[in-house]
Design a protein that fits this description.
globular, alpha+beta, Beta-Lactamase, 3 domains, six-stranded antiparallel sheet, 10 helices
Length: about 325
Amino acid sequence: MSPTLAHSTPPISPALVARMSRTFVRVVEIWVPSKDGTKLQFLDGLYGPLAEFRAVSEQMRFGFDEDLPGKAWAAGRPIILKRLENSQFNRAEAARAVGLTCGVAAPVLAGDRLTAVVVLFCGDDDAHIGAIELWHNDPSTAHKMSLVNGYYGTADMFELNARYTKFPRGFGLPGRVWKSGMPLIVKDLHHSKAFLRWQEATEIGINRGLGIPYPHASGETWVLTLLSARDTPIARRFEIWVPNAEHDALIFHAGDCDQSTQLATDYGAVRIARGEGTIGQVWATSIPAVRDNLAADTSSAGRSAVAAGLESMVAMPVMNDAGLKAVVAWYF
């Protein structure tokens, strides 16, 4: 299924402006291959109040290994640019004008086939705390997973400690994602023995984490971790949906929400059909999706999010050669 490219900037709700200005991630973009497969082109995004940056992005096209989206395409794993200035980033001037300083590009792969690249942008300020990290293991050289790169806002000591931390397979958030090959949510970090850095994290307000695996045919594995803080969260809600045994519906696997502690109960009997709502759309197309007005999503997940006061969402597939493994969704 070919995506429909966005050609105009949609109206922005005041609630979305407020939410996006308070979150650690300030912009989310989706880039997809062109029909001839030679370029990445803009599909959609969430920009909050930064409509001028969207207008610039809509006009861009990136080749293989070009700019941040193209480099993630070429590498086949996430790329983090801690500083957009003085890097090979074509929109540095436009990003600087709206206060964006860091970019993270995460490819969506079905085996070796790229279906999209999701790009997240952050910006520095005095109270900007959280983390987006990339961990890596090469089994030919190491038995543990170590940090490749990360963006931490103002959490300088947490960043320093991360650079000296290594995770065995099955330990900590990166190690558990590495072992399972599945996305994982860790919540209430101050009570979680599964998060080995819980004490350092809770001291600066980081209270939940999401890990996404990137295995490679070579045997190497990368894990992207999103660590969310109370005051500047990555998102207000995280969810993971997986195919049921019959592979005819998605069922709730895990989640965490600021506004509800009963997600597992609320979603216990919920089944999302292929193409149903934003999450079902992602399953049907293998392409990530954003929705800036959740009131238009009439699925059970959409109605639940609206009832919790959430305004917008991002949904991203996690796949392998055999097909969909999970859909990861996060809400603002």
